[in-house]
UniProtKB/TrEMBL annotation:
<keyword id="KW-1133">Transmembrane helix</keyword>
<keyword id="KW-0812">Transmembrane</keyword>
<feature type="transmembrane region" description="Helical">
    <location>
        <begin position="187"/>
        <end position="214"/>
    </location>
</feature>
<feature type="transmembrane region" description="Helical">
    <location>
        <begin position="125"/>
        <end position="148"/>
    </location>
</feature>
<protein>
    <submittedName>
        <fullName>Uncharacterized protein</fullName>
    </submittedName>
</protein>
<feature type="transmembrane region" description="Helical">
    <location>
        <begin position="73"/>
        <end position="92"/>
    </location>
</feature>
<feature type="transmembrane region" description="Helical">
    <location>
        <begin position="226"/>
        <end position="247"/>
    </location>
</feature>
<keyword id="KW-0472">Membrane</keyword>
<feature type="transmembrane region" description="Helical">
    <location>
        <begin position="160"/>
        <end position="181"/>
    </location>
</feature>
Length: 255
């Protein structure tokens, strides 16, 4: 049967090729069956399931993010990260032996060495523990605001809540805080004065922006029965930054 078989001459001998003898339809059938079996195995495999779940999770996250304001979330979370770094460096400045050379003196020692008529006593520097604790409370409150919906929408999106500009300016203030403690440790007093001056101005600017946005949307929060958030913003944010700004103002008189 010449149509279904083939005889090939190799070096004078006859060699029979069985694959060529198979009908073309049989080859196609075997290939299709093999492909379907592999596809079925892949679909039921653990890798396929993990990949599917991963893609669905990305899709679900993307849909959820449409409900959020990514820029504002970034500013709020960024404030928390920079605050943690600021507190860590301030803690190291009080223990210069453990700072790996970043600091050589404590702030209180430098202040005592170059004291003025209004330089506060060393024990008064413990006020920074209260200031940073108060700061931690309102920053934590802002993180919670990303996840709660007391009025039908996320709290941080409410117009009465602090704006992106507020958080961005406060991040700058925290960076200036870090710069100031390093410069003060190196006894660069003139530069320190201008740095702390900008810290004071930015702190008061944050209080002004927070107070303005709250005052402009006070009635809306009252109608939505969110009065307790009004007091949380006033007590935690406004008063927390006010205490911070007040101590910064006092500190400017050392120079």
């Amino acid at each position: 049967m010449k149509s279904f078989s083939s005889v090939t001459r190799v070096r004078g001998s006859h060699f029979f090729c069985p694959l060529v003898a198979l009908p073309a339809s049989c080859i196609i059938s075997l290939s299709t069956t093999f492909a379907e079996s592999n596809l079925t195995f892949f679909c039921h495999s653990r890798t396929f399931k993990k990949t599917t779940y991963y893609l669905l999770d990305i899709f679900y996250t993307s849909v959820k993010m449409l409900e959020h304001k990514p820029a504002k979330v970034f500013c709020i979370v960024g404030t928390l990260i920079v605050f943690i770094v600021t507190v860590a460096l301030n803690a190291l400045s009080s223990q210069p032996d453990y700072s790996s050379g970043i600091f050589t003196n404590t702030i209180s020692n430098v202040s005592d060495r170059y004291s003025t008529g209004i330089t506060p006593s060393s024990w008064t520097f413990s006020i920074w523990s209260v200031i940073y604790f108060w700061m931690a409370l309102w920053i934590a409150y802002c993180q919670v605001a990303i996840f709660i919906k007391p009025g039908g929408d996320y709290l941080y999106k409410d117009p009465a809540f602090m704006s992106c500009t507020f958080f961005f300016l406060y991040i700058i203030n925290l960076f200036l805080n870090i710069i100031w403690i390093v410069l003060f440790d190196r006894i660069y007093f003139i530069v320190c004065f201008f740095v702390i001056l900008f810290m004071v101005l930015s702190a008061y600017a944050c209080i002004g922006m927070c107070s303005y946005s709250l005052a402009q949307n006070l009635d809306e929060l009252t109608v939505e029965n969110l009065g307790y958030h009004i007091w949380l913003i006033r007590f935690l944010v406004q008063n927390g930054i006010a205490v911070y700004a007040t101590w910064l103002t006092v500190a400017t008189h050392q120079f």
